[in-house]
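Example record

One chain of 282 residues, shown exactly as stored in the release files.
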Amino acid sequence: MSRSTADVLHTLAREHLPHEIAERWTGLLRPGLRLAKATDADLVAGRLGGLPELPEPEEWPVWEGRGPLSFVASVDCAALPSDALDIALPTEGTLNFFYFDGQLDDGCAVVAPDEPDSWAGARVSYVPAGVPVARRAAPEGIRPYPEVSLTSRVETTAPHPRHPVVQREFAPMSADHPVGGDGFEDALWDHSEGTEHRIGGHAHPVQGEVETEVARGALGSPSWDDPRIEEEALGWVLLAQFDSDDDADMMWGDCGVLYWLIRPQDLAERRFDRAMFTWQCG
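Predicted structure tokens for this chain:
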């Protein structure tokens, strides 16, 4: 029988960190939902690619002046074990994720949290349960990604060593702190190898903590050493991340990942229009 992600992370902490620090670090672990390719025996909880099912009045998302976005994924909230999460994810309805992926301009336009004019290049739409929907054809010039059914499972997720919650827990955190040591960081990276589609929990960044990127953008892109950024970053949680995926023919830059984050209050109020996007690649 395979070990749970919680067991693995607790073991890694005990092996690489002093006891007192390991206890405090494991207190920062959070539940998340891993989305993986579904087999015939699995409950389907979402899908990558294909075509979205949208309410009749809802327009296909467009970035004004650039063109229509590509459909990345949908999640059936009723099929997720959302009661295992520590965020107020809807228990029914559908979340649809769209992104301007460069099909129309050979990747010239970049969607980034520090460029407000680009924010229209990534969207989340929520369709409540019971609302009539129809599968929508892709706009001209947009090639839909191959459809891949996804199932979900609960897993325990770890914060990036420079995540704001880690910085707060161990403040003041010196450059040689054990949590940021190469041995522990490498062990965490090895543990999380593989395709990482996720709902909730801690984000798995490719380059650095995504919460800080989003927080800086939300504050109007002040200097990176602005003390407000760390405080603002504590107010954002991961809604979803979608990795590059061979089965869906999705490649975000050089094996990159798309991230959508949201403030807990906006999530509780179903204000998905206030979610913010960032992406990272190797």
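Notes: The longest helix spans residues 5-16.
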